[in-house]
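Dear colleagues,

For the upcoming journal club I promised to circulate an example of a predicted protein-ligand complex. I picked one with beta-D-glucopyranose because it came up in last month's discussion. The inputs are reproduced below in full, followed by the predicted structure.
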Amino acid sequence: MRKLPQGLKLGVATASFQIEGAWNTADKTPHIWDTMCHDHPEYIKDKTNADDACKSFEFYERDIEMLKFLGVEFYRFSISWPRILPTGYANKISETGYQYYNNLINKLLANNIEPVVTIYHWDLPQNLQDLGGWANPLIVDWFGDYAKVLYKLFGDRVKSWITINEPKQFGVFGYGMERFAPRINAAGIGEYLATKNIVLAHARAWHIYDEEFRNTQKGECGITIATDFRGAVSDSPEDIEAGLDAIEFEVGLHSHPIFSSKGGFPDRVVRRVAAKSAEQGFPRSRLPEFTAEEIEYAKGTSDFYGFNHYSTRYYTRSTYTPGSQPIPSYADDLGADFNYLDYEPGLLPHVTVIPPGIRKALKWVKDNCNNPPIFITENGFGTIGGGLRDPERISYYRKYLDNILDAIEEDGCNVVKYTAWSLMDNFEWDSGLSAKFGLFQVDFDDENKKRTARTSALWYKNLIATRTLDSNKTSIPELEEHVF
Ligand code: BGC
C-alpha cells in the first residue's frame, strides 16, 4: 500500500467530439472529423460516427453526477471550436455553444470540481481546413483569436487551460499519413508544416494569456504532448541511436521548441531530415526552419508539461529496409522499426502494458524539458468489447500509478495532477465506438446512452477517497450497480 503524495490532484478526462454528439445542433458547423466520418465511414473501423456519441451535449448533468460519484477534484474536457465559433473566426459567438459550456463550467464549480479546459482536441472547423487548416500559417492568428474568445468568456472561472492536445497525433497522422482527419497525406512535407504551425499557434495562445489575462485571471496555460516512451530494442550502439532518434521525433519534435533552453526543433531531427532531403534531391530541408524570432517566441511558453501516456515502443535500425515506408515520409526520416517487445499485449496495440515506460518518460521530461511541473493529462487502458468487470484496466492503473509514484519519490519528478482517460466509453477516433476506455460503460444502443459504473470506476473512487494505492493487490472490487 502506498500513500499518494499530498497535493497530487486526481481527475478524469474526455474530449468534445468524443462525447458531445449534437453535431449539427443550433448553429454548430461541421469540423474535419464530422466531414470525414460522414463522407467516408469506411475510414472508421466499425463505420460508426459521433453524431450522437454519449449525447453529453444533452446529458452533461449526468456526467457531473458521475464525476461527483467518483469524487474527482477536476474534470478535463475540451471545447468544440465550431460549436462556439460557427464561422471558425472570432466574428460571431454562438449563443447556444456559449450557454452549453457556461452551464457545464458553472455546474462543475457548484459541485467543487475544477474545470480543466482543452482549447483544441482535434475538431477543426471544416471551412478552416478548406483553406489548408494546420498547414496554413494563418492558423496561428485564427487559433489565437479563438483562444482569446475562450479566455474572455470563461477565464474568470477556468484557471487551467490546455491549448492543444497531442500535436503529433493530428499533425503527423492528419497531414503526413492517412490515419486521422483531414487525411491530407502530404507525406514528408505536410506533417512538418503542420508541426511548425501548431507550435507557433500554441505559443500565440500562451502569449495572449500571459500578456492580457494572467494578471487578472491568475490561471495557468500549457500544452499537452503524447509521451509514449521510445527506447532501443537492444544495447547495440546502432539500436541505442535509433531509440534516441525515435524519442526526439516522437516527443522532442513538439517539446524541444517549447521546453528546452535552446529552442527550435531537436538537433537529431534537424540533421536526419536535412540529410534525407538532400539525398532525395530537395533544394532545402523538408523540415521548415524557425526564424530566430520564432524560436524566442515559442520558448518557455508552457506553465506545465501536459503529459499523455499509454505505452512504450522499442526501436531498432538493423532490420529497417529503406523503401518499407513511403519516401519521403516522417517514418522514413526516422528510418527505424519498432515493436513492443514481449510485454503484456493489450487488446489495442497502443495500450500494450509496459508500466516502467511511464517512469522513463517522466524522467525524460524532467531531464530534457527543464524539470517542469508535470500534469498527467491522460493515462488509461482501452479494450475491444465492453463488460462491467474490467480487471485488466484496474491492473493497468495499479501498475502505472506505482511507477508514477516511483518517478515522484525516487526520481524527483514534479507531478502535480493525474488524469484517468476516460470518464466513460466514447468515440475513439478511427476505432469508432468499438474501443472502450471508460471507467463507466456507455450503452450506445440506448437512446439515453445509459452509463454504468465498471469495477474500475469503483476502484478509482476508492483510490481518490483513501489516497492510497493498493499496488500489491490483484483483487478487484465487488460489482455494485451504479447507473447514471
Ligand atoms: C487522445 C484521446 C484518445 C486516447 C486513447 C489520446 O491519443 O488524446 O482523445 O481517446 O488517446 O487512444
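Two points we might discuss: The two ends are 31 Å apart (CA to CA). The longest helix spans residues 190-217.

See you all on Thursday,
B. R.
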